Amino acid sequence: MMRIFLPTLVAIWAVHAFAFVTPPYPVFLQASPTVLRTASQGATLDQHLMDLAQKFKLEIFDLDEGLFGFDSKDNRYGLEVVHTNIDVGNDGLGLVLTEMAGSPDGRGLVMVSKITGNAAKANPQAIHVGDTITGVMANDGVLKERVTAFNYDKTVEAIGRAKESSTDGTITLELNRLIKRLPVRVEIDDGSGHVQVIEALAGENLRRMFMRKQLKLYDERTRRFDQPFNTGNCGGDGVCGTCLVNVLQGMDLLNPKDSHEVFITKGRPPSWRASCRTTVGFNNVGGTLRISLHPQSELPEELSPGVKSLKP
Ligand code: FES
Questions:
Q1: CA distances (Å), 213 to each of 6, 93, 210, 217, in order?
Q2: What is the DSSP annotation of 121-188?
Q3: 278 FRET partner, CA 20 to 30 A, in 19, 151, 206, 266?
């Protein structure tokens, strides 16, 4: 099982946002034709499931291409992506799916409402009530279908196709799961004994956190990495290198550096991070992060080529 934690703001580039589940929302229960257990055999529309359904919202990335993604309407929750293998033997998957919301154009929010049989036997922790299926793979190396926001019928049909194509008797499901974001305490040490504390939630971008708190992140006199004769920041695009911080504690709470950040921190101490490329509480890990700002202003120029402070 592979897990990837996605922060709430993962879909900020969405072209349109469509509030998908707004109470009172429609609830449709439909019987499974072949693969799945029927909803009438024990789906439980308990309050927990209803609460989760109301937290999902649908982001439309590209309407023409039919590209959708789920996100959380509740900032206290983030989305985790889980991949899991399930035996699709004679007893079927052992899942009850319930369409918690639907739209006239065939989109829906289909959630796991009960886990029995093969799904429960294979790995009880792999699938949770409240998960929604966003991808189906046949394990034949060929058939992969994205089923994000498919309605009940289309989801079941895709699972049926994967089952038909499976060569080893199993299929892989990609699931979106809402999980509560863990708290991260961010301590900003100014080096003179004063520490400012920000209470954050796992998955937040470090630079956006500074913006939210209206903290002075950039050293105005710092020379840009990409434009050596200019100052000023790039607005979080990961090309200027003026948003650096020094991590004093809690490096294990942060995401690995991407290629942009590797480039702009090349030759700098490994504890330096570009805040615009840094996620606190990566993979929903909570804890304490301690940092200092403007590390480039503390180094002599010869030790800090490229990104260097113009501080006298
Ligand atoms: S703001 Fe430019 S690299 Fe971070």
A1: 22, 48, 5, 10
A2: HH-TTTS-TT-EEEEEE-SSSS-EEE-TTB-HHHHHHHHHHHHHH-SSSEEEEEEEEEEEPPEEEEEE
A3: 19
| CA 182 to ligand 1 center in whole angstroms | 26
The closest residue, in CA terms, to atom 3 on ligand 1 is 238
How many other CB atoms are found less than 10 A from the CB of residue 272? 20
Q: Which domain holds residue 255?
A: 183-303
The residue whose CB lies within 8 Å of the most ligand 1 atoms, and thus the one to mutate among 237, 244, 272, is 237
Domain boundary among 120, 149, 180: 180
**Residue 236, ligand 1, Cβ within 6 A:** yes
Q: pLDDT per residue over 283-311, tens digit each?
A: 899 999 999 998 877 765 544 445 554 44
Q: What is the CATH number of the domain that holds 229?
A: 3.10.20.30
Query: Do 170 and 34 lie in a common domain?
Result: yes
Domain end among 180, 203, 224? 180
Interface pTM, i.e. ipTM: 0.99
Residues 170 and 248 in one domain: no
Name the residue with tokens 């790039």.
Answer: 234
Same domain, 173 and 192: no
pLDDT digits (tens, 9 = 90+) for 97-153: 888 887 777 788 899 988 887 777 666 558 888 999 999 998 776 778 999 999 888
Q: Cα(9)–Cα(205) distance, rounded to whole angstroms?
A: 9
